[in-house]
Design goal:
Arc Repressor Mutant, subunit A, about 325 residues
Length: about 325
């Protein structure tokens, strides 16, 4: 509800009434005043969308000048022809500077990790720290949601950093930015796996027109499908400690629930057990081929608790025992 109060404050500063927007979002004046009240994603979508149109400002008063209705749609269209997400995000960040110089957005890649960094150039706190917080959250959710839409995939966040103290409603950040949250950071940024940058764009002008008819869900609702999830699960399973654990441990490492993990893998045509078997099988074969470790040690390194279960699984993968496989390779 803190964000709803910030939107109400924008109306007050412009001399307009927020009553129509609040009524459409089904937020009563009593609810608005409750410090610990919450609103649904749908209410936030309706309230912010109505306010953007009535105020003719898609930045909702955050910047020193308005961003007229359609500004972010124009940015989305300007990046639509990019060959991959990396190029699209670079264009989006560059073109955003044409709308306002109060912030600067940059795409910074360092090895396997990429960050969308938001640098403050203007005084975003001129209307209070709440307005500054709302601006940073709004911009980062906007670009994250659009990036997911561009490639039709959830972009799992490795972390989200914010340059302010944890607010009273800090528990909501885990819903808006699933991943490791850090407050009192040097600057605002979102961090994710660099491999997403190479994914091809999956949207065209027709899809953009349909999206723009109701674009706010991209900002307030998380994307479900993740086209890198299978690769991320394989990478996590390459750690022998994770490999021997269950879905709960793996899901926690990927910042998601076990239920979501199973569902999303199914949507990608895979299963956790299948991926575990693939990683275990490859690891066991590599160790049998490249080392002289005893079978018991190979079993443990491949995520098995005992040698007997390892031999049984290995037979199902290859039709023979680990010893047979090792002898066959060396011979």
């Amino acid at each position: 509800m803190a964000y709803a109060r910030e939107i109400e404050a924008v109306y007050q500063r412009t001399g307009l009434s927020p009553l129509q927007a609040l009524r459409l979002a089904q937020i009563t004046p009593t609810q608005l005043k409750k410090p610990d009240a919450k609103i649904t994603a749908r209410q936030m979508e309706v309230l912010s969308g109505t306010a953007m149109q009535e105020l003719d400002d898609e930045a909702l008063g955050a910047f020193s000048r308005r961003l007229p209705w359609g500004s972010y749609g124009m940015l989305a269209r300007a990046s639509l022809g990019a060959p991959d997400l990396g190029m699209a995000l670079k264009r989006w960040c560059r073109h955003h500077a044409l709308l306002t110089d109060d912030i600067q957005l940059k795409l910074v890649t360092s090895g396997d990790s990429t960050a969308i960094v938001l640098e403050e150039r203007g005084d975003l706190a001129r209307h209070g720290q709440g307005a500054r917080e709302f601006c940073l959250v709004h911009v980062l959710r906007n670009i994250h949601g659009l990036a997911c839409w561009y490639i039709d995939s959830r972009i799992a966040l490795q972390g989200a950093h914010f340059p302010f103290a944890q607010p009273p409603h800090g528990d909501a950040y885990a819903l808006m930015f699933p991943g490791t949250i850090r407050f009192d950071a040097a600057q605002a940024e979102l961090r994710f796996d660099s491999r997403y940058l190479a994914l091809p764009m999956r949207r065209d002008e027709k899809a953009l027109q349909q999206m723009l008819q109701r674009a706010l869900p991209l900002t307030v609702r998380p994307y479900r499908r993740d086209r890198l999830l299978v690769q991320q699960v394989r990478q996590a399973l390459s750690n022998s400690e994770v490999l021997s654990h269950n879905a709960d441990t793996l899901a926690a490492a990927l910042n998601m629930s076990p239920r979501s993990l199973h569902r999303q893998l199914q949507e990608e045509g895979a299963s956790l057990q299948q991926l575990k078997d693939e990683v275990r099988s490859q690891k066991a074969k590599d160790l049998l081929l490249r080392t002289t470790q005893p079978i018991k040690q190979v079993a443990a390194a491949s995520g098995f608790r005992n040698e007997k279960s390892f031999i049984r699984a290995f037979r199902s993968w290859t039709g023979g025992t680990p010893t047979d496989f090792r002898r066959g390779v060396t011979d």
